[in-house]
Amino acid sequence: MSMMIHVSSTPKELGAQAANAIANLLNEAVRRQSHARLVLSTGASQFETLEALIGLDVPWEQVEMFHLDEYVALPESHPASFRKYLKERFVSRVPLKAAYFVDGEGDAAGNIAALSRELMKEPVDVGVIGIGENGHIAFNDPPADFDTDEAYKIVNLDERCKKQQVGEGWFPDVDSVPRQAITMCVKQIMSCRHIISAVPHDVKAEAILHTVTEPVSPQVPATILKTHPDWRLFLDSQSAARLLSL
């Protein structure tokens, strides 16, 4: 078990530090095995990290990217679509070897099966895994399923998770947030060789406090990250505030 906590003064500085760590790990993987596999999360907390990452020296032509989660039955044209987010903010801006997306439209079960087969061909080198206001990782809301061996599954979103999406400006109100999403499962996330969590902003301070100080529990899903052999947590002064005040 190895947890490293980095605290920056601003979200931009946090993003730069997290991006450097991601780039270094990808470059190490490419040197070791001639390619790298990356899982990316989305949301407002990842803006600065992704912006910094695309500017770094990484042989993107040798990197495969996988997508962490997506809403069920939400069209890609919707402003809240995570496929749209990743294509606009990352995939269209670096020449990746391949990009594999979670698709919640049409035959969701078939889409999950195809994506799972692709993902499970080889280990993932770097998982960039955010932490939600309710302590979720991906859309594994509390109480999270720590036991399933599935790579992805459909889950029901809890109320606090929906409120976070409204608070970040993706939807006008809670009733507009889809009831379900497809998420990468906890065991699959934990199988990444390295995990980077970039978690800025004061709305995450409570979740960070619980994640770091509470025992590992499905009630605070992010606590499982503490059992990973290489988990690096990047905070800013606001998200770290409650932790630093102990």
UniProtKB/TrEMBL annotation:
Pfam families linked to this entry: Glucosamine_iso
Where does the record place the Glucosamine/galactosamine-6-phosphate isomerase domain?
10-226
User: Is ATP-binding one of the keywords UniProt gives this record?
Assistant: no
Q: What is this protein called?
A: Glucosamine-6-phosphate deaminase
State the organism named in the record.
Enterocloster hominis (ex Hitch et al. 2024)
InterPro entries in UniProt: Glc/Gal-6P_isomerase, Glucosamine6P_isomerase, NagB/RpiA_transferase-like
Q: Which UniProt keywords apply?
A: Carbohydrate metabolism
